[in-house]
Hints:
mainly alpha
Amino acid sequence: MGLFKQMKDLKNLTAQAPGMVAQAQQTAAAAQAYAAQQQAAYGATGYTAANAFGAPVNTGIAADDPRLAPIAGVDLVMYARISKAASQEGLNVDGLLLKAQSFGVSAEAWQEAAAGWPLRMRGDTQLAVHYGNVFGQV
Length: 138
């Protein structure tokens, strides 16, 4: 009987894995954006009083920059808004999808955007800092 319970537990864990991976990716993206913002604020540009109080760092990204093109119809501002609401409310994967839907974003579009935005920001410090600024302002 113990073996069947273990198999059932393994099956349940396997079913939950994609959601846990997606949630981990979103958390990693937020951490990367924060780290990039801190590096820009205190790193090579030096420490300033404005940055000490969390003032946005000028990234120089224009509104028409192609890196800001929406992913699955989700622009960076909407991605930040949904991500921030989800983090403040401590939502699990299902709650995150419901939160996205409450903002008018389908589950499919959110999943594509939630995977795409972190990939786009990875290795692009300027975009990650821009995201950090947006996240702080929404």
